[in-house]
Here is the input.
Amino acid sequence: MTDRLLNPDYIFESSWEVCNKVGGIYTVLSTRAKTLQEAHPDQVIFIGPGLWKREDDNYTKEESPYFREDNALFAEWQWEARQNGLTVRVGRWTVPGEPIAILVDFMPFFKKKNEIYGWLWEHYQVDSLHAYGDYDEASMFSYAAALVVESFYKHYLNESQKVIYHANEWMCGLGALYINNKLPQVGTIFTTHATSIGRSIAGNMKPLYDYLFAYNGDQMAGELNMQSKHSIEKQTAWHVDCFTTVSDITAKECVELLDKPVDVVLPNGFDNSFVPKAAQFTKKRKAARKRLLDVANALLGESLGDDTLIISTSGRYEFRNKGIDVFVEAMNRLLRDKDLKKKVVAFIEVPGWVGEPRRDLQERLNSGKAYDTPLEVPQVTHWLHNMSHDNVLGMMKYYDMHNRKDEQVKVIFLPCYLDGKDGILDMTYYDIVLGNDLCIYPSYYEPWGYTPLEAVAFKVPCITTDLAGFGLWANSVFGHSGEIEDGVKVIHRTDYNYSEVADIIKDTVAEFSGFTKKQVEDCRKKAEALSKKALWSEFIKYYEEAYDIALRKALLRKK
Here is the structure.
């Protein structure tokens, strides 16, 4: 089949998260880069926002930690672009595969904002009148990214070459429409990783799934004050050559809320080249467990042996969408579960409105001593700016969860990015995740779900739901609803079965606590085996299909 597919000569891919680690899309693009680079060496060019090295109070002035500049790359074009008012920095994205990346300064385009929005309305009826928040910033970046492609195309390329422009999320929609209009010979692809309106419905505590068929996307956009984001997303979906999303569950959303079926589903794969092997893995797992238990001891004043069950949840701080609420609920119920065979330390690794690492906790950790008295507020590792209004701490307080000594289950909130410099753990997320025995991601709204995929790649069994794209995919691989013995437990979740989900999590953790060493080992092996089926080498074929669709439509326009 691949022989018949049209293969691009150049692929330009734009995203707010190129060389800019914000969320899951960074993981999608950065882990896929190596597979794309191998197939199209240095013909894949990522375009991201120039947020660094600016003399502007709003941005950090230091270099992006994920970008290495190379002034010799396309030097002639770089000079020409600057002459034409485009400030670009060209180099390599320092991820496996080291693809070419261009970072563009979009700030100068703010002064043309109204003119750009006027053009957008005139050609595509995109409503930018209701813009607020990040809409303007994203749109100016998207516009600048498209100018980069237009300029590069005119300098180096011509109509004999097959070129793709791939825009990610509503944030890059404007650029896709600009390319569609100004360079019709370029095949355009748009990927929505989550519909803006679907995420908003779910985040506003409205039932999404039972009523999906009845929601009108345009009407909901008005009700939820999302008109501009919804408008750019919908018009981009309608006008690009190939409209895609990341899972079957989000594909349904696109049909109902954007009135447009997707052309291809592009499931999110994983590159496991940075998962440590054999002896190194064992060493890192030991180090992670020791660090987590040391932090727990310093905070709780309780000695916890290596047989303690370490579990965690992580992701963006979307309290309901990511199922953080149901995780806390399940841990509260586990406190009274008679079937629990081991002590449990449950970490909530979700970046909150973090103030600073706790000095008292740092002092204890630096002393190297073991402690038998807890610190005050033994539920949190960093002080927050909104201690009294934080959802996690508020729910724990409501349930009187104070990590008392006689309790079998302790819940610790780690409200910061685990980048290795948080002041408490001082280890990166990937160095910490392999220390877990079990990871739990009971999402209500999750287009794909990288966290469970990352967990199983590091041989950690996990619990997720069938409202996550990954959970649905896992069920399709197993041929049945995943059980914990399969490496992934997939819970059936609906708009209304919150309590049942909490009970199933509680029961699964209790059951897992009684597993023999061999049962745990089997579970870990099956988790890892499943992750191998989600490698980019397995999933890249869907992208090749999308490139083919877009290039064929572009060819038709040439005739």
Q: What stands out?
A: The CA atoms of residues 38 and 97 lie 8 Å apart. The longest strand covers residues 44-49. The radius of gyration is 24 Å.
